[in-house]
């Protein structure tokens, strides 16, 4: 009977992951790349593919060493297979989210019974942060994937069958995580492990000398060759990686990502509903919980504390502990579930659903999609009313998961319609490509930095007076053709290009025309910047 239940659980997880894959992928082509994060990563991947240089990442022609290259390699691979488009840029990120769900399922065997292993997968897949990041072109979904895979082999060594194979895999996948976002991978893996070694006997003497050496060797082989190559070509990089991208990112506001101390608390409470309430209840009753719950809490609390102490904060930083938090969320939801308190949450969601169509008052473009928003509201309301009738915990988790995924996926169709209000440039670029399909007319971005234009044009655009770039690693002046920092350089561009596209805010057009004596015709308008043709 247990074997039958386990096989049935596996089968349901397979069907669910297929459903999740379709849901997150269906809008990936239609939704614009958002500035600046998605556009930046996608453009670096495109430049890698076009130039054939997979060692030194470049953003708009300038070396860009903010992150190691694995994410860029994955993006470039997607663009190679599917073409230079939104879907290609997002494909391997979506695939990474599926692998994350698979390894979350594999990891559950150490914490829950066989017939219950599917439910943490449902919880993770329906958390708002996980769904959103699965569709974003950035490093965080890849880091999350390598984190849960590494954690799986840690737990397999501790609670499963001890083997040097676990050690080698830990080294390999931690190395891949290091190639994704540098030493951050250690905060989610090694650091909690060493904290637990202090308190729990089963975490001591887990790895012998041979296992440690094999893990170190496999990590070194995977992670260090790229670093050695780029540091050899750019000797200043060692200090840059250590001081600027590690110390300054944690201890200073150099990257303008400072947030209040409660920032990550708000992120968790708004993206892990309703399970976060049960996690809080479990923390209150901590002394009554078993040892494995303490293990999960440690793997969550340690990175949470580290990131909370850091000056630089982004919501996506904490995603790598969401797989284990989903396991914890299921255990505590199962322990503390109360139908009355859960219905209070449902009443809140029903009110939110009823009033959600009112957002059209703030976005004029949404009036065209009122029917779609109405359909989304009806779908959401139907799910919620159905949930009001369910009392079985497991059925509630599955239904709630399908509800969140479905509504989030449908909502992306709405997001696609308000691109002009959310800093996206797909439609603007399409206008440029229709007018100039051969890419003969150069593009000048004035007082801004918009890498998605380079991506959608499949040709570098010229940035002037935009975000200050780090050019200390350039060994020639070729980058200056696309990075203008003063009026004389802009005048030279205008002298060479008698006709060009100008992308700037409407408020800057008069200043530009007076300075440089150009008449520009507006071709496309949107909130952040407009498109002009100057002659």
How would you summarize this macromolecular structure in one to three sentences?
The protein has 535 residues and is mostly helical. It is built from 23 helices and eight strands. It is 63% helix and 5% strand.
Defining traits:
535 residues, six-stranded mixed β-sheet, two-stranded antiparallel ribbon, 23 helices, globular
Task: Provide structural commentary.
With 535 residues, the protein is mostly helical. The protein is built from 23 helices and 8 strands. The protein has helices at 2-25, 37-51, 70-82, 86-107, 118-126, 128-134, 140-159, 164-181, 184-188, 190-199, 209-233, 237-251, 263-271, 275-284, 291-309, 322-336, 339-355, 370-389, 393-417, 426-435, 451-457, 487-496, 506-516; strands at residues 58-59, 62-63, 442-446, 462-464, 483-484, 500-504, 520-524, 530-534. Strands 5-4-3-6-8-7 form a 6-stranded mixed beta sheet, sandwiched between helices. Strands 1-2 form a two-stranded antiparallel sheet. A hairpin with a 2-residue loop joins strand 1 (58-59) and strand 2 (62-63). Helix 3 packs across helix 4 (86-107) and helix 5 (118-126) crosses helix 16. The longest helix has 25 residues, at 209-233. It is globular and about 80 Å long.
């Amino acid at each position: 009977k247990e074997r039958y239940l386990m096989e049935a659980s596996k089968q349901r997880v397979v069907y669910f992951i297929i459903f999740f894959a379709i849901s997150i992928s269906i809008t990936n082509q239609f939704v614009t790349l958002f500035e600046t994060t998605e556009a930046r990563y996608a453009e670096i991947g495109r430049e890698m593919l076009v130039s054939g240089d997979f060692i030194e990442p470049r953003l708009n022609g300038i070396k860009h060493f903010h992150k190691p290259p694995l994410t860029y390699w994955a993006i470039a691979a997607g663009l190679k297979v599917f073409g230079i488009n939104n879907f290609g840029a997002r494909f391997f990120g979506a695939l990474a989210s599926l692998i994350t769900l698979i390894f979350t399922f594999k990891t559950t065997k150490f914490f829950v019974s066989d017939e219950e292993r599917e439910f943490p997968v449902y919880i993770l897949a329906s958390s708002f942060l996980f769904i959103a990041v699965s569709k974003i072109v950035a490093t965080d979904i890849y880091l999350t994937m390598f984190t849960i895979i590494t954690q799986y082999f840690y737990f397999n060594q501790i609670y499963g069958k001890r083997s040097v194979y676990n050690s080698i895999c830990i080294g390999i996948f931690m190395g891949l995580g290091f190639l994704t976002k540098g030493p951050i991978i250690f905060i989610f893996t090694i650091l909690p492990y060493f904290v637990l070694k202090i308190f729990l006997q089963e975490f001591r003497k887990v790895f012998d000398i041979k296992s440690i050496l094999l893990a170190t060797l496999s990590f070194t082989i995977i992670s260090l060759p790229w670093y050695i190559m780029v540091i050899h070509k750019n000797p200043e990089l060692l200090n840059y990686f250590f001081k600027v991208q590690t110390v300054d990112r944690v201890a200073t506001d150099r990257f303008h990502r400072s947030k209040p101390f409660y920032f990550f608390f708000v992120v968790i409470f708004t993206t892990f509903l309703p399970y976060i309430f049960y996690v809080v209840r479990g923390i209150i009753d901590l002394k009554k919980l078993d040892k494995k719950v303490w293990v999960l809490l440690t793997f969550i609390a340690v990175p949470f504390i580290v990131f909370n102490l850091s000056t630089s904060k982004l919501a996506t930083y904490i995603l790598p502990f969401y797989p284990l938090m989903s396991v914890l969320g299921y255990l505590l939801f199962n322990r503390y579930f109360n139908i009355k308190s859960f219905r209070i949450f449902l009443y809140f969601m029903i009110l939110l659903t009823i009033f959600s169509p009112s957002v059209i008052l703030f976005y004029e473009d949404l009036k065209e999609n009122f029917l779609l928003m109405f359909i989304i509201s009806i779908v959401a309301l139907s799910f919620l009313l159905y949930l009001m009738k369910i009392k079985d915990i497991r059925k509630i988790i599955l239904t709630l998961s399908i509800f969140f995924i479905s509504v989030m996926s449908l909502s992306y169709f709405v997001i696609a319609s308000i691109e002009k209000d959310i800093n996206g440039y797909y439609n603007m670029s399409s206008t440029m490509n229709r007018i100039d399909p051969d890419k003969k007319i150069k593009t000048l971005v004035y007082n801004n930095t918009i890498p998605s234009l380079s991506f959608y044009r499949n040709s570098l655009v010229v940035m002037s007076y935009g975000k200050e770039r780090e050019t200390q690693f350039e060994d020639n002046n070729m980058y200056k053709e696309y990075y203008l920092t003063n009026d004389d350089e802009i005048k030279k561009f205008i002298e060479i290009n008698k006709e060009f596209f100008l992308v700037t805010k409407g408020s800057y057009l008069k200043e530009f025309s007076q300075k440089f004596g150009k008449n520009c015709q507006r071709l496309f308008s949107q909130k952040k910047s407009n498109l002009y043709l100057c002659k």
